[in-house]
Amino acid sequence: MSPSSPAAPRPRRLKEMRPAEVAATLAADPRLILPVGTCEQHGPHMPLGADTLIVERLADDLSAEFQVLRAPTIEYGVNVVTARPSAGNASVRRKTLHRTLNDLADSWEAEGVREFVLLTAHQHDPHLEALETVVTATARVRVVNIFGLAFADLLEGQLEPMHGDEVDTSLLLYVAPESVNMSLAQDYTMSVDELRRYRRGWLRVPDTSPGSVGRPMLATADKGRQIYSRIRDRIRERIFLASDVAP
After folding, report:
1. What is the pLDDT of residues 104-137, one digit of tens each?
2. Looking at the domain 12-239, which fold is it?
3. Can you give the three-state secondary structure of the chain, one letter per residue?
């Protein structure tokens, strides 16, 4: 960047801002992005904060582009139960996450937030239910499960996102490549019925699985770039460019 070039817009991270700056940002745009992550194993090749790293990158990019306030990340979610213990796993109950989100939304709504954009990269049904049932007085709540999109045309070994898989691993290879050890990646497949029961919380990840479900060995950074671009573009179009929230 040359000395005369304007600085690139920075994310409007609430925790780095003073109260007057927050008030001015909300006066200009009363939306708040809230990333909701997990602290959960994604197989031996991935970090425990994989879901968190993905949604934090999205939140920062969207906040910088639209100059929308970005809340501190909620680092814990409702994890899938695994038959094999995994060091570092930390989960909260659905009602705990739900109450936390309700309490935070109540505080921020009183300070002028009129629309909440909850970003998550975790497809476990009890986790999503905690987000989707947040109650506010008048503010709009928009829950974005980034894996609700179709990616089959970008994948080789799967038709849809799973867990620590071709999608997750590709995204991390693009967003945070230093956090992935591909020499430890192992594929593990489930039937359609097993995958459905797993997502609903009716099936533990079995001992025979390395923790990941899907085909992480097929992941590449270029796939991650394409997947990330699709996610970001869709959120831009459907949430930020099309929003009708009133100041």
Report:
1. 999 999 999 999 999 999 989 999 999 999 999 9
2. Rossmann fold (3.40.50)
3. CCCCCCCCCCCEEHHHCCHHHHHHHHHHCCEEEEEECCECCCCCCCCCCHHHHHHHHHHHHHHHHHCCEECCCECCCCCCCECCCCCCCECCCHHHHHHHHHHHHHHHHHCCCCEEEEEECCCCHHHHHHHHCCCCCCCEEEEEEHHHCCCHHHCCCCCCCCECCHHHHHHHHHHCHHHCCHHHCCCECCCHHHHHHHHHCCCCECCCCCCCEECHHHCCHHHHHHHHHHHHHHHHHHHHCCCCCCC
